[in-house]
Amino acid sequence: MANRVDLEKQQRNIEEPPRTPSSIRSPAMTSEGSEHPRDSVADDQTVVDTPGSPDEVDAPGEPKLDEKTERSQYLVKWDGPDDPENPKNWSRAFRWYLTMASGLLILNATFASSSPSGVLPQLIQEFHLGHELAVLTISLFVVGYCCGPLVWGPLSEQYGRKPILLVAFFIYTGFQVGSALAKTTAQVLIFRFLGGTFAAAPLTASGAILADIWDADVRGKALAFFTLAPFAGPALGPVVSGYISVGGASWRWLFWVLTMFAGFCFCVILFTMPETYAPAIHKRKAIRKRKETGNDKYISELEAEDLHWKQRLENVLARPFTMLIREPMLMAITLYMSFVYGCIYLLFESYPIVFTEGHHLNAGESGLMFLPIFLGGILGVVIYILYFNPRYEKLIPIHAPRMVPPEQRLKPAFLGAPMFVIVFFWFGWTSYPRISLWAPMLSGLFVGCSVIFIFLSLFNYIIDAYLMVSASALASNTVVRSAFGAGFPLFATQMYNKLNPRWASTLLGFIALIMVPIPFVLFKFGPRVRRTSKYAPTFD
Questions:
Q1: Residue 299's beta-bridge partner residues?
Q2: Which InterPro entries match (predicted)?
């Protein structure tokens, strides 16, 4: 009798319209139900698990539940706001560890992308390459970034972050071994491309991990440390490879170093990083409940989708590009970040022209010229944490219980965008050999600082604006950015030799100047654009 009364109460609760937070209006889903719910508040709501067997539910005399109601009744989510399985309830120390570990994975990928720059002379000599073909060892790795995110980002939204990272890093480590043992030019280039494809997994999954484990009030601070990794890697790669070359070691030692680094990161993922994606945890929880109770009706969001494999494949491959095409704000952000990212990789070719040819530094010393970029990145992170992030945190109680509008994340770019323009004129017009090398070298300090401001603002904006499909948004962003990063080094040498460093840098400075209004326009018109978005929740 008690079970019957409880069942009637639960049925009445189910028949009531669900209460959704007034702070976030989720955009409409497709008719196929292909998109995940993106309401971060709704993810924390308690779902009552109904005990008992199916026989109890369909007992004679009891009203039969329709399929939709029954499915929602057994939908497994968090057991209340304090569920220990919820990554946002894990200890702060452990979440900071996961943040640093995710950054380490990014550091690995970006370090590997730029590291051959210091051993290019050895590759040219051993394989009788032209300079442009040798530069492909950098560009093809970054081209791999264009292919990988198309798969890794959406797959991480279907199967979770950890399985994708494990598979990708295991295979990526193998391709580093292949590069170290390569006997021909074709082998080197193919292994570099494939290595970049699998190294791209953390470029989308690691950023999504931060969205999984942090609320908006702390996410900006966590992302500040995390964002340093994509710029530390390219800056440190030429330093290490330059001194490997100067020390007389074979270029193959560089790839053995990359192999050991990749293998270490694989172990970090395997032994220390748990799954953080909420729907994947819910699926694991549903499987456990089915085994414990013998009731096969327990189901998770991912299982409830019940998509045909063709539709699932379409979601995986098409969603990033669909979002990029349909979302004007994502397209504008991606264009701006891609240009900035391409300029970073362009410096790998322009710095040797200015410092090696102009100031007669060796490969190791020339590699040290990249360190100010890394130090500028650290400076940018410190300024963000001490100045910009506290001001964002003050907005949280003002907007509570709503989320702070994503446009508030753009303010660091108001400083970073003009600064990025200035550094190109600074670097270009102090690049004369008769001027102390300290002048162009110190411009790198502000390159790093401005890039951190721009990327922190826009990364945070993407994550806050797209929430549960942020991995797909980051994937499309990464693909286009990587195309720019791969293409810019291919014409950098010719451009700097024919225009000379002064006018080549001036050209880039004027292009950067044209893009300065993008964060300001987004700040003013972003809310209006988001109201028309199919993927971004609104905050009004």
A1: 75
A2: MFS, MFS_dom, MFS_trans_sf
Residue 69 CB neighbour total at 10 angstroms: 12
**C-alpha–C-alpha distance, residues 289 and 74, integer Å:** 10
**Each residue's pLDDT tens digit, 59-110:** 444 445 455 566 667 788 888 888 899 999 999 999 999 999 999 999 999 8
Q: Is 294 helix (H, G, I), strand (E, B) or coil?
A: coil
Rounded distance between C-alpha atoms, residue 313 and residue 264, angstroms: 32
What residues are paired with 25 via a beta bridge? 538
- Strand-pair partners of 75: 299
CA distance 235 to 243: 14
Question: Which tens digits make up the pLDDT trace of 222-265?
Answer: 888 877 887 788 888 888 888 888 888 899 999 999 999 999 99
- The crossing angle, in degrees rounded to 10, of helices 328-351 and 438-466 is 160
C-alpha torsion angle, residues 494, 495, 500, 503 (rounded to 10): 180
| Residue closest to 150 by CA, chosen among 442, 517, 475 | 475
CA distance to 93, 139, 160, 419, 449, per residue, from 349 (Å): 40, 11, 38, 22, 21
Q: What is the largest CA-CA distance in the chain?
A: 96
- 88-275+310-531, which class in CATH? mainly alpha
Name the residue among 204, 174, 203 with its Cα closest to residue 190: 174
Phi, psi of 112 (to 5 degrees): -65, -30
Distance in angstroms (rounded) separating the CA atoms of residues 493 and 483 = 18
Which of 58, 48, 63, 61 lies closest to 8, judged by CA? 63
What is the residue-wise DSSP string for 295-350? -TT-B-HHHHH---HHHHHHHHHHHHHHHHHH-HHHHHHHHHHHHHHHHHHHHHHH
For residue 244, how many other CB atoms are within 10 A of its CB?
23
- Model pTM score: 0.73
Domain boundaries, the chain: 88-275+310-531
For 176, the token pair is 């580093």
From first CA to last CA, the distance across the chain in angstroms is 46
- Give the integer Cα–Cα distance in Å for 188 and 183: 8
Q: Which residues contact 80 (CB under 8 A, 6 or more apart)?
A: 46
Write the DSSP string, 394-431. Answer: HHHHHHTTSPPPGGGGGHHHHHHHHHHHHHHHHHHHT-
Cα 140 to its chain centre, rounded Å, is: 20
Rounded distance between C-alpha atoms, residue 68 and residue 226, angstroms: 41
